Structures are given as structure tokens and as C-alpha cells.
Amino acid sequence: MSRPLYRGVSGIGGKPLAEAACYYDPKEPSENGIGGRGGARKRHLAAVAVRIGVLVLAAAALVGSVAWAGTLYAGRGAAARAAAAAAHRGYRRLQEQLVTDLLDIGELAGGGVRAKEAEVCPPEYENYVPCYYNVTDAVDVSDLGGGVVISYERQCTRDGRATCLVVPPRSYRIPVRWPSGKGFIWKDNVRISGQEFSSGSLFKRMMVEEDQISFPSDAHMADGVEDYAHQIAEMIGLRNEFNFNEAGVRTVLDIECGFGTFGAHLFERDLLTMCIANYEASGSQVQITLERGIPAMIGSFAKKQLPYPYLSFDMVHCAKCNIEWDKNDGIFLVEVNRLLRPGGYFVWTSNLNTHRALRDKENQKKWTAIRDFAEGLCWEMLSQQDETIVWKKTNKRDCYTSRKSGPELCGHDPESPYHQQLNPCISGTRSQRWIPIEHRTTWPSQARQNSTELDIHGVHSEVFADDTSSWDSMVRNYWSLLSPLIFSDHPKRPGDEDPQPPFNMLRNVLDMNAHFGGLNAALLKAGRSVWVMNVVPTNAPNYLPLIFDRGFIGVQHDWCEAFPSYPRTYDMVHADGLLSLEKSHKHRCSTLDIFLEVDRILRPEGWVIIRDTAPLIEAARSVVTQLRWDARILDLDIASDEKLLVCQKPFIRK
């Protein structure tokens, strides 16, 4: 007996989940056992009796099926045995459904004896981000005193983590669909203080219009982002920004991206930009950028390396970001060098680069230090125009042996460090992935990867081809499975074609166990207007370098910790084999802990698709009911031991 899933994704008609959501009432006696002792004892005895009855019936069904299967297998011949096996699998599915239904009946007959639903967090948790210093509505930064230094470094502990449901603000609304959402967002969906509107930065321009925030387009800006991107292209030696792909540029790391304006523009040019910025209590660059539908995550140039492999980005962009590149012997520039591919570009726009600013002796000293550090990294300054400078990382390894000064080459050189301390040495020079960007396969062909490219990652082309084919089929199945759930109150008329969810129903997907990035590739191949955050768990085989080499973006992450993002930032969360992975590592944390984090970063009315073995899926369904998700178990194939758990997060209002 599955609970119905409600349609109405991002405003697709039908009854809103807000009206149908479950509520936890602390005064409800059947949920919490508050009531007379006699009534509680009767309910307990009834529950025990029902469970015993369920076990007896299940055992009888299992014994009967074994005896029945034995008679089938007594037949002779391969054909008879194959038919018997197929019949047995079908009968086993009926058994599993019988047991599931009996357990559901047992819950109902037992007077609601089931796992207690998670409680709703207090209002100050609306924008809660674990692992970072969180300033709530009740705390003013100015009240903390001038001597307090807020640390932006990620600091995770598994104790003391919130175990309640982070609910949206009272006036939260389902985000506007892409591509309209790129131009404006609902004001109450993000936390702003008013100070954000005073910034004159090209990438921090916004206008408040009643209940929405709009972002000026190039047509309304004399010095718009289109002119800026065109300028960068010319400085690199290209005709315009439409030629970035031809120069080998596909992935861009945008440091302190403002509100994602540069990334939004480059997306139209087939470039994929990852925005990173510090945690911010209000006016968050990451939160607003994600709300607009542009990739972003919390990340800091502080004491630790960013959770990306070396040699992963074709361009790193910093426009008036607050990074002091001249400090600590240029170690932040060394980190940029680690992330850049050979031949990649570092674009730096700063007031410090103007002739007027360089009249100041202190500014001259800073500029000289940065220039010397860049030379020590074997960067070539291609051009300088106004406030913008473009450096190009060397594509020749022997440059590092012929320099007069600069950081040493790394001895111990981990490819994908997970929040390790910043390393003051040059990494990646020994890697097989040291391939200049101008020699790489360009987008979109790079997503397919040839056998030579796959050999670098230890992946056989046959395995990769099978994975690609499997995900192409799976994405088609996902879309067909979601269709009846979304359009459940629109019965199909005779002769009508099956309805399909809109191509832009989803703008972003978080893939919790991305493997080779197959889901990402299949969604793009199917023409979905979506980008994927490919997550490689720290306890899984590390194919994150392959994901970046395919022209996608991703990150390493430990799912026993909080993901570095704000609440309500993803339309769909997908997990293939993650439960099995965690089980193989002795359940380092509970499934409920992981799902609570998924609930935090999932938007109201967002979807969760979990693919795993049947026993783990059945166990997971009992957990997600505690989160009030609407859940349904679906079979993948009669010959498969895997199942799908398709869930939708309700829109819980206060």
C-alpha cells in the first residue's frame, strides 16, 4: 500500500502539496502514546498480535513458494528450467508485495505504531548550513563585538547536528522555471538584508520589484557582462566569446561570483561555470546564484584545498573577489595553479590593476609580489586591459626545471584531496592527465571520451559503453515513471499520447554517487535543460577526474557530513547504489542522518530517486516516512534484484 505522490512540480497544476502535507501534532495521542494507560496497553497488545500474524503469514507464503518452486524445477530440459525460473521470479515479486502490504496493514491495525515523524526545526534554522558559522535572525553580527573573527573554514562534527526538518520561510514560493528564473527570483526565497543592493559591481547588480528580485540584462547595461566576456575572449586571442570552446575552454571556476551573472552568460556559450564563495548569513552569493539556476557551492580560499582534483578547470575567474593573492607566499595562487589544466587561463579583474591605484606604494608592492609569484608558477601574462589581466598557465613541464625561483614540485601528490591543508608546492606535473587544453577533445565530443582518454583513468571502453547505454535507458525510464505521478489527475483519453513532463521541469540534479557521470551525460543527450552536481563519495572509487575530463562538474564528499550548500537548492536528488556503499562500510552513519541532509538541500515539491537492492529499498522507505516524504517503490525489471524508491518532498508550511 503506497502513499500517493502529489503532482504540482514547480507549479504544474493540481492540488498543491501545501494542502496535502502531513503535519506532526504533539497532542495527537496515537502518534506519541500520550493517553490513558489502559488504552496504550491495549494498543501495544494489538500491535504485537498483528505483527505475529504478519510473520506467520509471511513464513507460510515463503514455505509454500519453496515447495512450489521445487516441483517446477523437477521438470527436465533447459527450456523447462528457464520457464520455471521466470515463474518463480514473478511469484517472488507477488510475495514481496504481499509482505509489504501486510506490514502496512499491521501499522494501521496497530493504532499507528510506527517510527515517529521528524519534528520541524525552529524558525532560526530556515537558512541553516551545518559545518559553518551560522548567524541566525536572533543574532546580529555587530552584537558579537569588534574582536570576534568569523571563521569561514568548514568545520564538521557528527555530534550536535540538527535532527529536525528545515522548513522554508513562511512566504516561500516554488522557484520560477528555467530559463525565466535566470532573470528573476522570488525575494522571500533567499535571505537578504538590503546592503546587497548598494554594490556597484557588475556581477552584484539586482533590482527589487515588490515580491521579486530581478537581474539586469545586457540590454540595460552599457558595460554589460557580454562586453566583459567579449573583452576576455579578445585578450586570449579569440574573435569573441563564442570561440571559447574552440580554444579548449569548457569548465570555469568563478571565485566569489557575485550573483552568478558571468556564469549565466557563459552557459549560453556552452561553458559550465562553478561558482564558489564563503558562507554568508545574508545576501549569499551561493544561495542567490543557485536560486537563479546556476551551479554554485560554498567554498573558501582559507587553509584547506578545495575538494576538486588537480588539472580540472580550463579557466579560473576572479572579478573583484576578496582574495589577498599576495599573502602567505602566494599560496592561494599555487592552489589556482593546482586546479588549472595545462594551458588554462587565470582571469583577474581588480581595482589594484589600474594606473591610478598603482600610484600608491603599498599597492605597487602588492602588485609586484603577485606578478613575481605568477612568474614563479610559469604563468605567461597574455594581456592587460583596464582592470583585467589574463595569465596563461604553462603547458610545458620543463618550464619548472628551468625557472630561477618559485615553488617546488610536489613529492606526495594526491589527485583529489578532500579538505586537506593547502600545499605550497606545484602538483599534477607527473599525471597522465597533463594534457594542454588546446590538445583536448572539445565539447561536446569530450563527454563521450575515446579509448585512449579512458585508459588514463583505468576504464575499459567496453565498460564505459555499457554504462552509457544503461544510463540512456534509465533516464528514459525515469521520465516515463515520473509522468503518471505528475499527471495523475489527468487520465489519458483513448488515442492520446502519454504526457511527458516539461523538458525544463528540473534545472539541477544532485547525483549522490555519480560513478562515471553517466546520469549527467544521459540527461544532456535526452535534451533536458539541466545541470548535474556529480558527487563522488569519499568511500567510493574516485572517478571525479574522469567526470571533469568529460566536461562536467562535481565534488568529492563524505555523506556522513553536511553538503556545502544552503537549504532548498536542488530540484532532484539521485542515488544509485549509495545505500549498498554505506552498508559495505558498516553504516558509518545512519540512513536517517543522510536523508535528513537530503531533505535540507532539496526544494519543496522536489524529487528523490533511489536505486538499490530490494531489501535496502524496503528499509529506506520506512525511513523516508519519518521525513513525511511521499514514497512509492517501483520494480525495475523482472530479472533484477534492484528496485526504485521514488519520493517527493511535501511543501510543509508553518
Automatic annotation (TrEMBL):
Annotated keywords: Glycoprotein, Membrane, Methyltransferase, Signal-anchor, Transferase, Transmembrane, Transmembrane helix
Transport recorded as keyword: no
Bilayer topology term: Single-pass membrane protein; Single-pass type II membrane protein
Molecular functions per Gene Ontology: methyltransferase activity
Transmembrane stretches, start-end: 45-68
Gene3D superfamilies registered for this protein in UniProt: Vaccinia Virus protein VP39
Subcellular location: Endomembrane system; Membrane
A single GO cellular-component term on record: endomembrane system
Superkingdom per UniProt: Eukaryota
Family statement: Belongs to the methyltransferase superfamily.
Name of this protein: Methyltransferase
